Amino acid sequence: xxxxxxHILLINPWIHDFAAYDFWAKPIGLLxxxxxxxxxxxxxxxxxxxxxxxxxxxxxxxxxxxxxxxYLKTRIPKPQGLDxxxxxxxxxxIREEWFREDLQALPTPDLILxxxxxxxxxxxxxxxxxxLREYFPNTPVILGGIYATLCTDHARKYCGADKVxxxxxxxxxxxxxxxxxxxxxxxxxxxDDLNCLPYPAFHLENVISYIPILTSRGCPFSxxxxxxxxxxxxxxxxxxxxxxxxxxxxxxxxxxxxxxxYDDALLTDPEHHAIPLLxxxxxxxxxxxxxxxxxxxIREISPYIAxxxxxxGFETIRLGLETTEFEDRKELDRKVTESQFRQAVSYLKAAxxxxxxxxxxxxxxxxxxxxxxxxxxxxxxxxxxxxxxxxQYTPIPHTALWKKAVACSRYDLEADPxxxxxxxxxxxxxIS
Length: 432
Description:
By secondary structure, the protein is of the alpha/beta class. It has 13 helices and 16 strands.
């Protein structure tokens, strides 16, 4: 076995799409792996192709709009098969020449780890790997992440990686290092225990504008449109003390004020999870802001939880409503009733939240969904006194709704993940 520490390069690729925005988007899974490697004595480099604060980019205020912002974009040709979409297509992220210069400045890595997010963003993954081959032709490239897990065969065929891994990378990381770097690592902890993992290596970014927080992985629900149970079959949670300590760490050491909860199930079993966590945050007496882009389970919002959220500093709240067709939603999910929705809204308002702080996600572009159905949902949400937040449906392989999506789409969804792009409303007869 190799005795000297290997050098491992981690890459967050570009986004190729009709539109993209940094809406709390960080490669938290990849940065968990980076932190684990560092903790075990491995030399790590990180290139974020979505870095809005690249040293060569125009200066931007990292504190504006809660730390979110527009990506730099470069217009590129539309993928084959999407010529019917009357919109420009772009590569979002750093300039290609900046990426090449960053690669040229690095020593040759022993291993490269590339992550992937949306399935239809794979062209950005493929282009990154192609460029990596130019600079480091003899270095193994490993692809993981959401696209790699949900579209494994496609990824193996088209993306050019030496190996495609599926599922949680923490459980496979050290085996991959041993296989490709001939370097043995004895784990200092159980990677299945989320409380043992180091904090994600956000310190590798040149600017930290906000921090995503994962208090759990997985979800107890099996909604027809969602891949959460496929990506994380088992619900695992961190201790509230562990989460509170991480929030304090980023705030006190790095001055972070905005935190986005990435959880799919933040409020489930609240007595043992969310309530003690929020109580600890309030007791710490820090002035920070919390955001819930992945949505909250509505049925768990009580007067006490709403008050805790307000006192803890929740700033933007998104509710996982999806539709107000409550009587006909069993095919989609069983998350909430009409009375639970209206009650939760009243609790949030009574706690002090303003109308503009509360939004309810509504899915649009579902297979067989009518425009009138969406309009009714929008009216119902507005009548409740909060804001509707339209979320375009993405057909996801292996989900319960996938077969219906394939049957009704004007595209061949099974032929290429590029056709599952939610911005083209692939299951709608109307061209976006």
